[in-house]
């Protein structure tokens, strides 16, 4: 198909223009716009043009484009009045752009009403997905799409942290997974990481220590040490041990990392866990939210030659797991009441109908209202996992 060929052969920075030309030729479109979601997941920003301006920016949560982004399904704007009966009238279709469940933006096209059949919408949806994959590859060679997704300049520490993240969400038949950090543009040290194989999902949630560059360097060391051990084929206890040694060898116990390490067997739902610090996991099962009692072990890098003992439990189809940093559960209201004490279970239950990719943002919005202000004193990180089995 011409659109796929255009995406394969275009220069990394020229994907929107090449796709626009191909769609104009083969689908008689009268306009093509490609928008990327910003780091805070508040806005959809044009992939082309002045990244610092607001021209063409639309909400990622409301409006037609926001509806397509939030639902991850195509949305066609209806025509009202006499134009609705005109076969040549232009319909505007908004198509989600994603990469293996990671929502990155929306492709908007305007097509004559008589040309926009269900089959054409399906074809355009597949092209939008191909665009997402093309952008993921192009990001290795151009900063265009990364810049387009920024409402403001990132701090250097935030730049380092965002480069560590595997994505905002991922989907597989066995599970759906989503995560988010707040504040998006000046984060201190919290991060999450995941990796999938044919047999396993490995998930790591890290609660960083310190602020600024020091926190980013510490977290980068810990995450890359864990990845190095994981990619060597080592088990979860060995991954924790080697990351512990790497952090201790660099900081000699002055700085350390709190982490929660999990490895899911996709075929059975058996989960191996190492709780090495303060990130916590909540489990919602059959409508009830509880905090599983894991054995709290030492953070990574606090002492030399720490041995970590794995624990095990089993997830069931329909389970929803939440992973939260202390910037969430230790946040306080203006009256001094901790978020964990009353509001957290209510927030986790109220997001039950949302997909995991949208849950972290919804919980963090609720947290901001509870806090009474938009400026947190610490990183707030939420990761949500739905287990299908």
Explain this structure.
The protein has 389 residues and is α+β, with helices and mostly antiparallel strands. The protein folds into 2 domains: 1-149, Beta-Lactamase; 156-387, 4-Layer Sandwich (Phosphatase 2c, domain 1), CATH 3.60.40.10. Helices cover 33% and strands 26% of the residues. It has helices at 2-9, 15-27, 63-71, 118-138, 144-148, 156-164, 212-231, 236-251, 326-329, 339-350, 359-371; strands spanning 31-37, 43-46, 58-59, 75-76, 90-99, 102-112, 169-172, 175-182, 191-196, 200-207, 258-265, 270-276, 280-285, 288-290, 311-314, 320-324, 380-387. Strands 3-2-1-6-5-4 form a 6-stranded antiparallel β-sheet, with helices on both faces. Strand 11 (258-265) and strand 12 (270-276) form a beta hairpin. Helix 1 runs antiparallel to helix 2, helix 6 runs parallel beside helix 7 and helix 10 runs antiparallel to helix 11. Keywords: Hydrolase. GO terms for molecular function: phosphatase activity. This is Phosphatase. InterPro entries: Bact_Sigma-Reg, PPM-type-like_dom_sf, PPM-type_phosphatase-like_dom.
